[in-house]
Specification:
Blueprint lengths: L1 H9 L5 H11 L5 H16 L17 H10 L5
Helix pairs in contact: 1-2, 1-3, 2-3
Amino acid sequence: MIEKAVFLVREAHASRETAVHALLEYFPGSAFEDRIRCVHEAWDIVHRGAPPVPVYSAHSEVSDARYFAAAHERHAFTD
């Protein structure tokens, strides 16, 4: 969940509040407190130079601009 929160904060430029609500769509049934904790940790990683989330060897579709734009629109993020 932290990896998705980092994506929302870093790549989608979501506010903390928006990221907390967006995580519910990705992780239905997750506790509000868990989503808040993950977003705060993600915020620290992105904005305060905390150690980065481990990089996985799997290719992410988000690295392809077409998929990123579709995800961006699907979640109604604006620039």
